[in-house]
């Protein structure tokens, strides 16, 4: 490498990835193992007490770095996002393949004792999620036009639709659990709550990402790469829902 190339090299460093990784470890697997495997509530609370602040600190640092990045500065976010989306597709595909294997070889489906799961709520949830993708697309257009007020309004509407989606999901869960249908009821219960719950978790992550976009925007700060990446993730979650609703509710 030439001297000129060497002197022109620039490396960005950040503590955010390490904080997020450690925070995830302390927030999810260790508390679950402590409580469900070792039956220690104190250990679980201790891990959560350290993990949650660490995770939030890492996310805050990462968001701040992303928002403050210069618009003409080269970044890998839009290049790396397809790789991340591909990994998510493979996880969902693993869940669906498992479901298909059980569904196709089962002598009776759903198994005896399973309650009737209606289609009205998932249809409403589909409308909400599709509408939220449209409103976020409009929000991106407002930002490109320099209309920060319109961007914030449409982003807020998108988040409202997302929260309504989660609210209906929780309402459905409470109704089914009230009827005695839980993940441990049978194989259908395990598949239903695993697939729909995993998707709901992605909706929640998307809403948290939107919140990370909205809070700086309230102070007039934003980053187009950050906004576009959040949108791609949300549209991906929307597309996956069509597979969830068609396979779980209508097949």
Question: How would you portray this structure in words?
Answer:
- By secondary structure, the protein is mainly alpha-helical.
- It has two domains: 1-68, Helix Hairpins (Orthogonal Bundle); 77-249, Cytochrome c oxidase, subunit III, four-helix bundle (Four Helix Bundle (Hemerythrin (Met), subunit A), Up-down Bundle).
- Helices cover 79% and strands 0% of the residues.
- The chain is globular and about 60 Å long.
- The protein starts with a helix and ends with a helix.
- The model is unreliable at 1-7 (pLDDT under 50).
Could you provide a short overview of the structure?
With 251 residues, this protein is an all-alpha fold.
């Amino acid at each position: 490498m030439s001297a000129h190339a060497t002197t022109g090299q620039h490396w960005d460093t950040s503590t955010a990835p390490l904080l997020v990784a450690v925070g995830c470890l302390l927030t999810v697997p260790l508390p679950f193992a402590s409580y469900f495997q070792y039956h220690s509530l104190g250990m679980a609370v201790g891990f959560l007490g350290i993990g949650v602040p660490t995770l939030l600190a890492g996310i805050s640092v990462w968001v701040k770095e992303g928002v403050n990045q210069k618009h003409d500065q080269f970044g890998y976010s839009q290049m790396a996002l397809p790789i991340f989306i591909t990994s998510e597709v493979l996880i969902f595909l693993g869940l669906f393949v498992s479901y298909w294997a059980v569904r196709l070889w089962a002598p009776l489906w759903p198994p005896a004792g399973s309650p009737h799961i209606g289609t009205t709520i998932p249809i409403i949830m589909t409308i909400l999620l599709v509408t939220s993708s449209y409103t976020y697309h409009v929000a991106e257009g407002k930002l490109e036009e320099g209309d920060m007020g319109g961007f914030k309004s449409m982003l807020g509407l998108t988040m409202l639709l997302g929260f309504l989606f989660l609210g209906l999901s929780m309402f459905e869960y409470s109704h089914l659990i009230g009827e005695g249908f839980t993940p441990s009821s049978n194989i259908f219960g395990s598949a239903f709550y695993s697939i729909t719950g995993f998707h709901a978790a992605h909706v929640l992550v998307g809403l948290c990402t939107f919140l990370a976009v909205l809070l700086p925007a309230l102070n007039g700060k934003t980053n187009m790469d950050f906004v576009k990446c959040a949108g791609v993730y949300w549209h991906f979650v929307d597309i996956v829902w069509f597979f969830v609703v068609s396979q779980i509710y209508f097949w």
